[in-house]
Amino acid sequence: MPDSPRKAGTLFVVATPIGNLSDMTFRAVETLTSVDLIAVEDTRHSRRLLLHYSISTPVLSYHEHNEQQQTRKLLSTLQSGRSVALISDAGTPLVSDPGYRLIQSSHAQGIRVTPIPGCCAAIAALSVAGLPVDRFVFEGFLPGKAAARRKRLGKLVEESRTLIFYESAHRISASLSDLVEIFGPHRRAVLAREITKQFETIKNAELSQIRQLVLEDANQRKGEFVILVQGMSLDERDDDDFMGVLRPLLKALPLKQAVDLTVDITAHGKNEVYKMALKCKD
Ligand code: SAM
Q1: Tens digits of per-residue pLDDT, 266-282?
Q2: Which CATH fold would you assign to the domain 122-229?
Q3: Ligand 1 pocket: which of 166, 167, 198 to mutate (most atoms <8 Å of CB)?
Q4: pTM of the model
Q5: Which architecture does CATH list for 10-119?
Q6: CB distance 133 to 126 below 8 Å
Q7: How many whole angstroms from 220 Cα to the centroid of ligand 1?
């Protein structure tokens, strides 16, 4: 009788701690112990975690620079019936971490992919931020170059959902300064630094106060950061809508005419627009 085709193995996507080794879940330990191979972002970094939990499963390095070649190897391992776990240096793989190509190709080849959920810095930060959580948007890392970063922030300024950014120590000051400049000093925000670690800081304040904290205290510039920014409120958006029309008209026309035109264009109340026009003139 001919051999029946071998059933492909399962790919487990396993979350690991973001600073405190005790945040490893039981299922994560069980899974990493029982799979045939673990794909790790950095073999040296993961050794500490694996040693801590006495996990002796073989590892294969998988990072952004060898992703293509290693994806092929991992797919053939899976196709041969063996199981694989994917971990990153910290938190949930693929969230600002490698793995996309492997997961995508696994689906394309009909390989079962299953999550072993756990830590994610963005979600941990959101859970303690005290900002609206009903709708949020994850923006990952902002661009490193100042011009690109400001452009990205400019596109986000009217976003009404809570915004989540990842940031590193060497860019935290620059990014906070750009946030203050573009979103305004009073926008509510949260700095979540070194979550689950010894010097964890969770600060909910206005953007300018957060920038101040980071500028004044060198310790607050160290470590890993999540920045959360409250979305623009509907009131702010409305104000902004009509101010965007009123301001240029005031430059070109007499006050009364600018007010009348703004009211026609935006359908805002005449009194409200008139008051703002007087303020602008002042
Ligand atoms: N996959 C990870 C996750 O699930 O959160 C994120 C990996 S990404 C390469 C690393 C970034 O995540 C850091 O620069 C920082 O912005 C954020 N991060 C990771 N651990 C953190 C922690 N303990 N406290 C604050 N931010 C953290």
Answers
A1: 888 898 889 888 877 76
A2: 3.30.950
A3: 166
A4: 0.85
A5: 3-Layer(aba) Sandwich (3.40)
A6: yes
A7: 16
